[in-house]
Amino acid sequence: MGTFTSCSFIPLNSEFRSNPVRRAFRERIQYHELNRLRGSCYLCRERSKLGRYINFGRFTCFSSNNNDANNEGESGSNASQDSNVTTTLSDGAEERNENGLNSEKSRPPSASSRPTLSSVGPTYNNFQVDSFKLMELLGPEKVDPADVKLIKDKLFGYTTFWVTKEEPFGDLGEGILFLGNLRGKREDVFAKLQSQLVEVTGDKYNLFMVEEPDSDSPDPRGGPRVSFGLLRKEVSEPGPTTLWQYVIALLLFLLTIGSSVELGIASQINRLPPEVVKYFTDPNAIEPPDMELLFPFVESALPVAYGVLGVLLFHEVGHFLAAFPKKVKLSIPYFIPNITLGSFGAITQFKSILPDRSTKVDISLAGPFAGAVLSFSMFAVGLLLSSNPDATGDLVQVPSMLFQGSLFLGLISRATLGYAAMHAATVSIHPLVIAGWCGLTIQAFNMLPVGCLDGGRAVQGAFGKSAIIGFGLTTYTLLGLGVLGGPLSLPWGLYVLLCQRTPEKPCLNDVTEVGTWRKTFVVVATFLVVLTLLPLWDELAEELGIGLVTTF
């Protein structure tokens, strides 16, 4: 017989990170290199003469060699065969000899014990095999096995963490997850392992302390059982901001300025020309009006636009001020324009790995808190100016039905302006009320506990990764039913699903709990978010005198 080789692979995801080293390596790969590797085993690099078989699951190489080439075509031959070596790399524990190498000598395999098509797995064509190999070559760089052995010998032991098992770690299994038993206080052990890792391997890897997956029991010392994940820094840390990202961020900011000015113009709906109002409110209107008619209203729309843009900038400044003392890098904000609120906020990414969950909560809450403080200040000052007779010339007329969009803000407006002013077809308010209302709504939307929003990050940091799943499903359900956000629930839900649905990545220390006051702050903030986004139904609005309700 000749040589039969078959390998099975860990399932691959179509999404993989790349880094400058990988990109340079990708450019050097040519077709003849793939053709040379076609049909060869990743473990022993022997080429298959009988076919290509891939079995997903554990990485296994079957290799049987026969020195008697003359008996290759004879079935049922009783010729003697040399002993064969079978090497298997599994996810479980490994048998090691005195030199630390895996080896297991087996008896000469019989015809019934040799791998068959059904035992090895389904066959794949050349294109599929080449695709798997290309993804393996171009995927994220994995941890060096020599470094793994060195780390196990130098870092882990009786005084820190006793390793009992190793598993793949990371999105594509590019890292190593060490499972075992903790031998001390987790924070002290983690700090010691981090310092020793730098001494042993240099600035090459990141060590993560995470909850042990599928753990059946808590740690005897209290809290969940922990494991330690190892990833290369170029794989685990976010890449730098590219030139195209700066260009996109600038274009989005310019569009956000335009949408904020448009909001200021729309707030003067009672002053706008009738043909303009009809075009934007009548669904049957086809011919657009002359947009030059809107130019006289741009100057009066600037206060609202300035207010909305100021809230957005305060929000981002809050994030950066909270991240700076922690030495956490943030990306440039990508503002999302919206014609109803002026903006949906901004997407701001972490450009460095967070050290712990407390840092995640602090940075996540700082932005919405700063934006909410400025928004509520403008909202309150605007309501006071609206009730001042001396400021009549600066007021704008808006439909009173707009105040039914928020239970919390509607009640505050009703208490400040009074029943007579609110229970009418239109209400005279200062432009600051509109800017503050829109700003508070933007902060509330971004504090929803779902995905990678500020609220999702805060809940994930305060209550763990498992909590964000339940909060996220509840939020999606309420948005889908239109319970939160009213007419904006559908576009906001689509925006989250497209851009912000993925939860934030784990911190270096993703196990240590945050303080009680942080959890309390997150709960109170979530409650206020619900009150802000919960609209008033007609019966309650009529009873409270918020808006003029004619039908129920």
Automatic annotation (TrEMBL):
It is a multi-pass membrane protein. The keyword Transit peptide applies. The chain crosses the membrane at residues 243-265, 293-314, 334-354, 366-386, 398-417, 429-448, 468-498, 519-537. CDD domains: S2P-M50_like_2. One of its GO terms (molecular function) is metallopeptidase activity. InterPro entries: EGY1-like (IPR044838), Peptidase_M50 (IPR008915). Residues 70-122 are annotated as: Disordered. One of its GO terms (cellular component) is chloroplast membrane. It comes from the Eukaryota. Keywords: Chloroplast, Hydrolase, Membrane, Metalloprotease, Plastid, Protease, Transit peptide, Transmembrane, Transmembrane helix. This is Putative zinc metalloprotease EGY1, chloroplastic. It comes from Senna tora.
